[in-house]
Protein backbone atom coordinates (compact mmCIF):
# COMPACT_ATOMS: atom_id res chain seq x y z
CA UNK A 1 0.00 0.00 0.00
CA UNK A 2 1.09 3.59 -0.66
CA UNK A 3 -0.92 4.88 2.32
CA UNK A 4 -0.29 4.65 6.04
CA UNK A 5 -2.39 5.45 9.06
CA UNK A 6 -0.81 8.18 11.16
CA UNK A 7 -1.59 6.79 14.60
CA UNK A 8 -0.33 9.95 16.31
CA UNK A 9 -2.99 12.20 14.74
CA UNK A 10 -6.39 13.21 16.09
CA UNK A 11 -9.41 15.04 14.65
CA UNK A 12 -11.39 17.98 16.04
CA UNK A 13 -14.55 19.32 14.43
CA UNK A 14 -15.38 23.03 14.55
CA UNK A 15 -18.93 23.70 13.36
CA UNK A 16 -21.66 26.30 13.62
CA UNK A 17 -22.45 29.54 11.81
CA UNK A 18 -19.47 31.37 13.38
CA UNK A 19 -16.94 28.59 12.74
CA UNK A 20 -14.98 30.35 9.99
CA UNK A 21 -14.77 33.71 11.79
CA UNK A 22 -13.92 31.94 15.05
CA UNK A 23 -10.89 30.21 13.53
CA UNK A 24 -9.93 33.25 11.45
CA UNK A 25 -9.51 35.30 14.62
CA UNK A 26 -7.33 32.66 16.29
CA UNK A 27 -4.98 30.90 13.87
CA UNK A 28 -1.87 32.05 12.03
CA UNK A 29 -3.19 31.50 8.51
CA UNK A 30 -5.93 33.05 6.43
CA UNK A 31 -9.13 30.98 6.34
CA UNK A 32 -10.54 32.73 3.26
CA UNK A 33 -8.77 30.40 0.75
CA UNK A 34 -9.77 27.26 2.69
CA UNK A 35 -12.56 25.44 0.85
CA UNK A 36 -13.68 21.79 0.56
CA UNK A 37 -11.29 21.61 -2.41
CA UNK A 38 -8.33 23.24 -0.67
CA UNK A 39 -7.10 22.53 2.88
CA UNK A 40 -5.09 24.97 4.96
CA UNK A 41 -2.22 24.70 7.42
CA UNK A 42 -1.75 26.88 10.47
CA UNK A 43 -1.27 27.04 14.22
CA UNK A 44 -2.65 28.39 17.45
CA UNK A 45 -0.07 30.47 19.31
CA UNK A 46 0.44 31.79 22.79
CA UNK A 47 0.19 35.59 23.21
CA UNK A 48 4.01 35.48 23.21
CA UNK A 49 3.96 34.01 19.70
CA UNK A 50 4.99 30.42 20.46
CA UNK A 51 3.28 27.40 18.91
CA UNK A 52 0.68 25.69 21.10
CA UNK A 53 -0.35 23.36 18.28
CA UNK A 54 -0.06 23.27 14.49
CA UNK A 55 -2.71 21.53 12.40
CA UNK A 56 -4.38 21.12 9.03
CA UNK A 57 -7.71 22.85 8.43
CA UNK A 58 -10.17 20.98 6.22
CA UNK A 59 -13.42 22.66 5.18
CA UNK A 60 -16.55 20.50 5.05
CA UNK A 61 -19.14 20.90 2.30
CA UNK A 62 -22.76 21.71 3.10
CA UNK A 63 -23.58 18.08 2.27
CA UNK A 64 -21.15 17.01 5.03
CA UNK A 65 -22.68 19.42 7.53
CA UNK A 66 -20.35 22.38 7.01
CA UNK A 67 -17.70 23.67 9.38
CA UNK A 68 -14.14 22.40 9.57
CA UNK A 69 -12.14 19.37 10.62
CA UNK A 70 -8.76 19.96 12.24
CA UNK A 71 -6.12 17.27 11.64
CA UNK A 72 -4.09 17.67 14.84
CA UNK A 73 -1.33 15.92 16.81
CA UNK A 74 -3.14 13.41 19.00
CA UNK A 75 -1.17 14.31 22.13
CA UNK A 76 -2.20 17.96 21.71
CA UNK A 77 -5.87 17.32 20.97
CA UNK A 78 -7.14 17.55 24.55
CA UNK A 79 -5.21 20.73 25.29
CA UNK A 80 -6.28 22.28 21.99
CA UNK A 81 -9.92 21.52 22.76
CA UNK A 82 -9.59 23.24 26.15
CA UNK A 83 -8.04 26.32 24.60
CA UNK A 84 -10.60 26.55 21.81
CA UNK A 85 -13.39 26.32 24.40
CA UNK A 86 -11.68 29.08 26.37
CA UNK A 87 -11.78 31.38 23.33
CA UNK A 88 -15.30 30.37 22.29
CA UNK A 89 -17.07 32.86 24.58
CA UNK A 90 -20.42 33.69 22.91
CA UNK A 91 -19.49 32.55 19.42
CA UNK A 92 -22.02 30.23 17.77
CA UNK A 93 -19.57 27.38 17.51
CA UNK A 94 -19.66 23.69 18.44
CA UNK A 95 -16.42 21.84 19.26
CA UNK A 96 -16.18 18.05 19.11
CA UNK A 97 -13.18 15.76 19.57
CA UNK A 98 -13.64 12.99 16.98
CA UNK A 99 -10.28 11.33 17.56
CA UNK A 100 -11.64 8.04 18.93
CA UNK A 101 -13.86 7.40 15.92
CA UNK A 102 -11.60 8.87 13.22
CA UNK A 103 -8.29 8.09 11.58
CA UNK A 104 -5.84 10.15 9.56
CA UNK A 105 -4.00 8.53 6.69
CA UNK A 106 -1.29 9.88 4.39
CA UNK A 107 0.53 8.94 1.24
CA UNK A 108 3.93 7.37 1.85
CA UNK A 109 5.32 8.07 -1.63
CA UNK A 110 3.44 11.10 -2.93
CA UNK A 111 1.03 9.08 -5.07
CA UNK A 112 -2.77 9.64 -4.85
CA UNK A 113 -4.66 7.88 -2.07
CA UNK A 114 -7.28 5.24 -2.89
CA UNK A 115 -10.69 6.62 -3.90
CA UNK A 116 -12.34 5.11 -0.82
CA UNK A 117 -9.98 6.91 1.61
CA UNK A 118 -12.64 9.23 3.04
CA UNK A 119 -12.21 13.01 3.06
CA UNK A 120 -9.08 13.43 0.92
CA UNK A 121 -7.04 16.64 0.73
CA UNK A 122 -3.65 17.62 -0.65
CA UNK A 123 -1.05 18.32 2.03
CA UNK A 124 -0.96 22.14 1.90
CA UNK A 125 2.62 22.40 3.11
CA UNK A 126 4.39 20.88 0.12
CA UNK A 127 3.01 19.23 -3.05
CA UNK A 128 5.63 16.46 -2.87
CA UNK A 129 4.07 15.22 0.39
CA UNK A 130 1.02 14.11 -1.58
CA UNK A 131 -2.41 13.57 -0.09
CA UNK A 132 -3.85 13.07 3.38
CA UNK A 133 -7.32 11.92 4.37
CA UNK A 134 -9.63 11.82 7.37
CA UNK A 135 -11.74 8.69 7.51
CA UNK A 136 -13.60 6.39 9.91
CA UNK A 137 -11.35 4.36 12.17
CA UNK A 138 -13.40 1.24 11.53
CA UNK A 139 -11.99 -0.52 8.49
CA UNK A 140 -9.01 1.82 8.06
CA UNK A 141 -6.64 -1.15 7.92
CA UNK A 142 -8.19 -2.10 4.59
CA UNK A 143 -6.99 1.09 2.89
CA UNK A 144 -3.86 2.00 4.88
CA UNK A 145 -0.91 0.01 6.15
CA UNK A 146 0.98 0.53 9.41
CA UNK A 147 4.00 2.16 7.78
CA UNK A 148 4.66 5.44 9.56
CA UNK A 149 8.41 4.84 9.34
CA UNK A 150 8.31 5.18 5.55
CA UNK A 151 6.10 8.28 5.81
CA UNK A 152 8.45 10.04 8.22
CA UNK A 153 11.54 9.05 6.24
CA UNK A 154 10.02 10.77 3.20
CA UNK A 155 8.99 13.81 5.26
CA UNK A 156 12.51 14.12 6.65
CA UNK A 157 14.08 13.72 3.20
CA UNK A 158 11.87 16.58 1.96
CA UNK A 159 12.93 18.77 4.91
CA UNK A 160 9.49 19.18 6.54
CA UNK A 161 9.46 19.43 10.37
CA UNK A 162 7.01 17.59 12.59
CA UNK A 163 5.77 18.98 15.90
CA UNK A 164 6.87 17.00 18.95
CA UNK A 165 9.74 15.47 16.98
CA UNK A 166 11.56 18.45 15.54
CA UNK A 167 10.27 21.24 17.75
CA UNK A 168 8.63 21.37 21.16
CA UNK A 169 5.12 22.74 21.49
CA UNK A 170 5.05 25.81 23.71
CA UNK A 171 8.72 26.52 23.02
CA UNK A 172 9.08 27.30 19.29
CA UNK A 173 8.12 30.28 17.18
CA UNK A 174 6.46 29.73 13.77
CA UNK A 175 9.57 30.97 11.93
CA UNK A 176 11.75 28.48 13.82
CA UNK A 177 9.45 25.61 12.79
CA UNK A 178 9.34 26.84 9.17
CA UNK A 179 5.62 27.63 9.15
CA UNK A 180 6.45 30.81 7.23
CA UNK A 181 8.17 28.72 4.53
CA UNK A 182 5.50 26.02 4.36
CA UNK A 183 2.43 28.21 3.94
CA UNK A 184 1.38 28.14 7.59
CA UNK A 185 1.40 31.90 8.27
CA UNK A 186 -0.39 34.78 6.57
CA UNK A 187 1.27 38.19 6.86
CA UNK A 188 -1.70 39.94 5.23
CA UNK A 189 -4.70 38.82 7.31
CA UNK A 190 -6.08 40.62 10.33
CA UNK A 191 -5.14 40.10 13.94
CA UNK A 192 -4.75 36.70 15.58
CA UNK A 193 -3.23 35.58 18.87
CA UNK A 194 0.54 36.13 18.86
CA UNK A 195 0.50 38.08 15.59
CA UNK A 196 2.53 41.02 16.87
CA UNK A 197 5.52 38.82 17.73
CA UNK A 198 5.35 36.88 14.46
CA UNK A 199 5.09 40.06 12.39
CA UNK A 200 8.03 41.61 14.22
CA UNK A 201 10.22 38.56 13.52
CA UNK A 202 9.22 38.70 9.86
CA UNK A 203 9.86 42.39 9.28
CA UNK A 204 12.98 42.71 11.43
CA UNK A 205 14.51 39.44 10.27
CA UNK A 206 15.22 38.28 13.81
CA UNK A 207 14.59 34.54 13.29
CA UNK A 208 18.15 33.38 13.83
CA UNK A 209 17.14 29.89 14.94
CA UNK A 210 15.62 27.65 12.28
CA UNK A 211 14.94 23.98 11.59
CA UNK A 212 17.08 22.95 8.63
CA UNK A 213 17.64 19.62 6.84
CA UNK A 214 20.98 17.90 7.42
CA UNK A 215 22.77 14.96 5.84
CA UNK A 216 25.02 12.78 8.01
CA UNK A 217 28.22 12.09 6.12
CA UNK A 218 28.52 8.50 7.38
CA UNK A 219 24.90 7.66 6.54
CA UNK A 220 24.08 7.01 10.20
CA UNK A 221 21.70 9.31 12.07
CA UNK A 222 22.17 10.27 15.70
CA UNK A 223 19.44 10.00 18.30
CA UNK A 224 16.69 12.61 18.49
CA UNK A 225 17.57 15.40 20.88
CA UNK A 226 21.33 15.05 20.52
CA UNK A 227 23.32 18.25 20.79
CA UNK A 228 24.64 19.81 17.58
CA UNK A 229 28.11 21.32 17.90
CA UNK A 230 31.07 22.67 15.97
CA UNK A 231 34.30 22.59 17.93
CA UNK A 232 33.38 23.94 21.37
CA UNK A 233 30.35 25.85 20.09
CA UNK A 234 26.79 24.65 20.68
CA UNK A 235 24.66 25.08 17.58
CA UNK A 236 21.34 23.55 18.65
CA UNK A 237 19.62 20.18 18.72
CA UNK A 238 19.01 17.35 16.27
CA UNK A 239 15.38 16.37 15.68
CA UNK A 240 14.04 13.38 13.80
CA UNK A 241 16.21 11.37 11.42
CA UNK A 242 16.04 8.47 8.97
CA UNK A 243 18.18 6.95 6.22
CA UNK A 244 21.15 9.23 6.78
CA UNK A 245 19.13 12.43 6.84
CA UNK A 246 17.71 14.51 9.65
CA UNK A 247 16.27 17.82 10.76
CA UNK A 248 18.01 20.09 13.23
CA UNK A 249 16.98 23.23 15.13
CA UNK A 250 20.10 25.36 14.77
CA UNK A 251 21.34 28.90 15.39
CA UNK A 252 22.15 29.76 11.79
CA UNK A 253 24.53 32.61 12.64
CA UNK A 254 26.62 30.21 14.72
CA UNK A 255 26.56 27.66 11.91
CA UNK A 256 27.76 30.32 9.47
CA UNK A 257 30.61 31.27 11.82
CA UNK A 258 31.61 27.62 12.20
CA UNK A 259 31.64 27.09 8.44
CA UNK A 260 33.74 30.21 7.89
CA UNK A 261 36.25 28.85 10.42
CA UNK A 262 36.38 25.50 8.65
CA UNK A 263 34.86 23.60 11.58
CA UNK A 264 33.00 20.31 11.16
CA UNK A 265 29.34 20.26 12.16
CA UNK A 266 28.47 17.38 14.49
CA UNK A 267 25.29 15.90 15.89
CA UNK A 268 25.77 13.44 18.72
CA UNK A 269 29.36 12.97 17.56
CA UNK A 270 28.40 12.29 13.94
CA UNK A 271 29.44 14.73 11.21
CA UNK A 272 26.76 16.36 9.09
CA UNK A 273 26.33 18.98 6.39
CA UNK A 274 23.37 21.23 5.66
CA UNK A 275 21.07 20.50 2.72
CA UNK A 276 18.86 23.36 1.53
CA UNK A 277 15.50 22.29 0.04
CA UNK A 278 13.87 24.32 -2.74
CA UNK A 279 11.03 25.61 -0.54
CA UNK A 280 13.38 27.47 1.83
CA UNK A 281 13.78 31.11 0.80
CA UNK A 282 15.59 32.65 3.75
CA UNK A 283 19.38 33.25 3.59
CA UNK A 284 21.21 30.00 4.26
CA UNK A 285 24.60 29.51 5.99
CA UNK A 286 27.35 29.25 3.41
CA UNK A 287 25.52 31.37 0.85
CA UNK A 288 26.97 34.76 -0.16
CA UNK A 289 23.84 36.66 0.96
CA UNK A 290 23.73 35.12 4.42
CA UNK A 291 23.65 37.66 7.25
CA UNK A 292 23.47 37.51 11.04
CA UNK A 293 19.73 38.23 10.90
CA UNK A 294 18.88 35.08 8.92
From TrEMBL:
Any one GO biological process: iron-sulfur cluster assembly
Protein name: Folate-binding protein
Keyword terms, alphabetized: Transit peptide
The keyword Transit peptide belongs to this UniProt entry's keyword annotation: yes
The GCVT N-terminal domain, residue ranges: 11-106
Family annotation (NCBIfam families): ygfZ_signature
Keyword rRNA-binding: no
Family annotation (Pfam families): Beta-barrel_CAF17_C, GCV_T
CAF17 C-terminal domain residues: 208-280
Domain of life, per lineage: Bacteria
Record InterPro entries: CAF17_C, GCVT_N, TrmE/GcvT-like, YgfZ/GCV_T_CS, YgfZ/GcvT
Amino acid sequence: MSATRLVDRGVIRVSGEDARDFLQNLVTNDLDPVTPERAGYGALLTPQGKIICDFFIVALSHEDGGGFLLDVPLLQATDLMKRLKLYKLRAKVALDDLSEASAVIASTDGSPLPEDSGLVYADPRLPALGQRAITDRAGVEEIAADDTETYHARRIALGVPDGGRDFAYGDAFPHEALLDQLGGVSFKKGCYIGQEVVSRMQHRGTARTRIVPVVFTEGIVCETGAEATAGTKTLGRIGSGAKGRGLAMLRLDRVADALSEGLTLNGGGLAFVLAKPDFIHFPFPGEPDFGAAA
